Recover the amino acids of this structure.
């Protein structure tokens, strides 16, 4: 009977130890799973922070999109408010005229290409009827009254140049430069480059020598 009791106690202790061991293994397994999850959360958090930093860096380094750039156009002649007007890139001649208050009663828009797209620095001149009448014998284009900034770059504008500026041209001295200014005062602006030969003292040879250096 005593041996039987001892045997039962031994079996009972083995069962207890086995249960305890199983419990310990279960706890260890759960701890391992928890640590793996924490590692995954940490990696994910780091990736999110990295992505956020990269996104911020990309946003800082990306070009800033501004509103459409402005261009500045010089509008003269027969408009209500001659001067420089500011327009959006891609604006056309008619918009520049409107920005200058529209034309006067004496303006002649027939030679003007109002649909022409403008560039920064262009100059528009609205002529009078008398001025266009003087040029009817010439086959001018509407663009004759619009000086493009690119084509006029580095050139002397014979319609606005001062006495000193005119003297920088080949073959033009102080006397001839004054004659050009006097001609402008009496007849208005030059509508075409070759009209410069209407100035006393400027012949074909002189004009040919300075044609590439002037604009209107």
């Amino acid at each position: 009977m005593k041996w039987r009791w001892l045997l039962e106690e031994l079996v009972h202790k083995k069962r207890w130890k086995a249960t305890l061991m199983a419990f310990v293994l279960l706890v260890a397994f759960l701890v391992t799973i928890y640590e793996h999850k924490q590692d995954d959360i940490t990696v994910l958090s780091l990736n999110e922070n990295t992505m956020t930093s990269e996104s911020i860096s990309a946003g800082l380094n990306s070009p800033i999109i501004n509103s459409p750039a402005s261009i500045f156009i010089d509008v003269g002649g027969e408009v209500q408010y001659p001067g420089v007007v500011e327009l959006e890139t891609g604006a056309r001649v008619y918009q520049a005229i409107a920005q200058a208050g529209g034309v006067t009663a004496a303006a002649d828009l027939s030679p003007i290409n109002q649909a022409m797209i403008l560039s920064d620095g262009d100059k528009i001149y609205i002529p009078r009827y008398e001025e266009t009448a003087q040029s009817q014998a010439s086959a001018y284009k509407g663009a004759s009254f619009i000086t493009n900034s690119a084509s006029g770059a580095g050139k002397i504008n014979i319609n606005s140049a001062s006495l000193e500026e005119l003297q920088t041209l080949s073959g033009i001295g102080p006397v001839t430069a004054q004659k050009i200014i006097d001609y402008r005062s009496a007849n208005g602006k030059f509508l075409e480059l070759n009209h410069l030969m209407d100035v006393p003292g400027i012949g074909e040879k002189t004009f040919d020598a300075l044609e590439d250096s002037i604009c209107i």
